[in-house]
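Data availability (excerpt). All sequences and predicted token strings are deposited with the supplementary files. A representative entry, UDP-N-acetylmuramyl-tripeptide synthetase, is shown inline so that the format can be inspected without opening the archive.
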Amino acid sequence: MKLSLLFEGAPEIEITGLAMDSRKVKPGSIFFCLKGLEADGHDFAGKAADAGAAAIVHSEPVEKRDGVCYLHRENVMRELNRVCDLFYGSPSRRLTMFGVTGTNGKSTTASIISDIFSAETPCGYMGTIAVRYGNYSRVPTLTTPDQIEVHGDLAEMAEHGMKAAAMEVSSHGLSMGRVDSVDFDCAIFTNLTYDHLDYHKTMENYFEAKKLLFRHMKKDGVAVLNADDEASIEGLKECCACRYVTYGTGVLGSADYMAEDVRLTTEGTAFTLVTKEGVRPVRTNLIALYNIYNLLAAIAAMHECGMPLDKMLPLLEDIPQVDGRMEIIDEGQDFGVIVDYAHTPDGFDKVFEYGDAITKDGGDIIAVFGSAGKRDKVKRKVLGAIAGRHCAQVVVTEEDPRNEKAADIGEVILSGVKESGGSGVFVEDRKTAIEKAIRMAKPGDLVLILGKGDESYMYYGDGRVPWIGDNEAARGALRKLRSNGRGDEIE
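Structure token line:
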């Protein structure tokens, strides 16, 4: 694409790509000098030029090199969003775009939409679990990647026959403007609870970041709001730039998409769906009440975007397993093992509430988890306290420690476990910790492995390294138990 098509009055230079990291610049790229939290792109303009940048967009003075077109703009971020959309052919305008935000449930809700809506319209998925469309899937970089990656991935989906995309939208992504030029047709809100205060500082700031998705919606779009989420519902109604519908179970009153007479079991759930189109029975293989909220959000979003309920509801009986999200690990053992991505206080509350409900007959809960380094430190003790109240034993371990010592993080978590009256132990190696918890389990117990789900990497001080995933680690531990017995306890 010619530079003149991206910037009025610019020369007829062929542009081959876009970059906001000088290390990713290739000959013919446009480099955008963005000011980040830890670095200023203006400081790397020279390296970008050395790497072959054809043009550099900047807001502050930079040293100029021969053969490079320098474009001064007051707001480089705005230019980046505009150019990304143009360079990749406005892919979000060619797709029915679902954007899912909220503290918990984004991955499950977006995955349900991608899987079920595809029966009507081919629908890709972008989020924490993967970037996937059709039979293709790859590991993501972030929940909500940068603008270049977002538009590039959406263009790739459109080129491979997708007509829709379900995308997780994080508070970080919203506050950093990563989706400012994405044309969303449907914005979905799951819930608002404590998270990411290391970045946002206050719950008010966190909620304001989430609101951006709804403030920027186009007039003919639709928002799907959780009527039972007291912390968010009124604020979102007030700021929505488009029409909205609600979903819920009647906790705070009626909703447009209501689940009544909810019947939960360990194998699945049944409920009555009440909408303006009437009353319909629903059966699903999803377990736990909070997943029914995720399902209701998905039902409302898909229906508002044109999928008939009569076509949709039969498909809900066998929703594809979302790896690492309330994933039941069964290798024939006489106790339960569930892997879940829960890593927030609210997520812990809901998972343990479900755990209590299915281990009433004398069974105990054993939990394995840690907490991320260089992230919200306040919640570490809170997570420990929640687990301590519900568990017979807590095994604390590493969980993306980054440049912190896993043992130091574990000490804080264990202090919360102890203060709540629980018992815990620290085992640094995560695979060993999972094996220990599984060997401790007795018939009727439940082992909850929380925090990473199916993530295939672990963050340490020197970057991201491969990790087999909690689900695979659990399967391996169960097979090892079956082959070798419980053996000696690991100290």
